[in-house]
Write the structure tokens for this entry.
Amino acid sequence: MPNPRLTGLGAGLFGSALMCVLGLLDQLLFGASLTVYGVLFLPVCLLTALWVRDAELLSAPVVAPIAFSAGLLPVAVGGNGIGARLMGLATALATQVGWLYGGTLLAALTVLARGLRLAVARRRNQVRRPPARRNPS
């Protein structure tokens, strides 16, 4: 299992690029099913939260909605014009907000668990040294 460490920007790029690819695949294979897109969003959020660096844990829940919106562009049903396409995007965001909140919550809970684990590990690594003994000489 790979164990990459993404920066905050890398996590955003990873999530956005992966969601764009999954959105295109969803459009080709499932006819732009928003439910399939939402289900595919959850593991992307989990992977992003697991692979972000320890120092930038808080970026994972922030980039999740950005990745969802970026990948939704090929899936959102709209007309031929830019206005119709934007209206389709806004409608898709409004109707699929449950998946968006669920993925963001999953990323936030994963980051919280990782942060708590890091805090416990830091606490254990703080070795309390006994005071130095003075030699009677």
Observations:
- The CA atoms of residues 82 and 88 lie 10 Å apart.
- The mean pLDDT is 90.
